[in-house]
Amino acid sequence: MDVRGLRRAHGDRVVLDGLDLRIAPGEFVALLGRSGSGKSTLLRALAGLDPVEAGTVEVPPTVSVAFQEPRLLPWEPVWRNVVLGLGAGATRERALRALRGVELEARADAWPLTLSGGEAQRVSLARALVRGPELLLLDEPFGALDALTRLTMHDLVRALRAEHRPAVLLVTHDVEEAVALADRVLVLDAGRVAGGRTVPPGTERGSPGVVALETDLLDLLGVRAR
Ligand SMILES: Nc1ncnc2c1ncn2[C@@H]1O[C@H](COP(=O)(O)OP(=O)(O)OP(=O)(O)O)[C@@H](O)[C@H]1O
């Protein structure tokens, strides 16, 4: 994925101001930024949901998005939600395979409103992955979940990533989450990528290296770590 000089304004307010961003195939990039810095605006542009005013956006042919809210249709059972919009490919077998990947095959016939928040978010991930995307866009998909469920979701994302190998752009407020999941963490500020850090492979949660990296990123965000 290759974005160059992307500009996007809402009225007079310039949100993205000549933003450059490249993500290699299979690379996992997390994007941090203060509230209102334009993270969702960028994701919407990459997903083709908003027009590009200036600059170029090159994305692979298959792009999937998962949002903070699972956005499931309540009147369709779980399995149909997973394969919604796949046309002739929308088979129950295909949905079950995707649901197996998120350990929810047993809930295939459940109604979305009977799922827990974490389960609904897993269905949303299954729906994003069933298309076999080359680029997966995640807009704070775990933000509404409790801390324990979030850690379980991190393990699941790692496993799904190892299996599917899409390029991933994860938007998050959570520095720890960014470092735990990504190969590279970037900070969005004033409409551009203001800096970033590479996460060395094999870094472990809570290790001194990770804490130093998190402190660096908080500095880049202009937040003083205690
Ligand atoms: N449809 C819209 N019309 C007008 N302004 C908008 C619209 N969508 C977003 N904005 C403004 O653009 C700026 C960036 O919004 P965006 O949602 O991309 O930020 P964000 O970094 O994702 O924020 P948060 O972390 O709080 O979700 C904000 O100032 C917001 O008020």
What does it look like?
The protein has a single domain (2-220), classed as Rossmann fold. The chain contains seven helices and nine strands. The chain has helices at residues 39-46, 78-83, 92-101, 117-129, 147-164, 175-181, 208-220; strands at residues 2-10, 13-22, 28-33, 54-58, 63-66, 135-139, 167-171, 184-189, 192-198. The strands form two sheets. It has a six-stranded mixed β-sheet with strand order 5-6-7-3-8-9, sandwiched between helices. Helix 3 (92-101) crosses helix 4. The chain is globular. The relative contact order is 0.19. The mean pLDDT is 91. Adenosine-5'-triphosphate binds next to strand 2 and helix 1.
Task: Give the gist of this structure.
The chain is an alpha/beta fold and 226 residues long. The protein has helices spanning 39-46, 78-83, 92-101, 117-129, 147-164, 175-181, 208-220, and strands spanning 2-10, 13-22, 28-33, 54-58, 63-66, 135-139, 167-171, 184-189, 192-198.
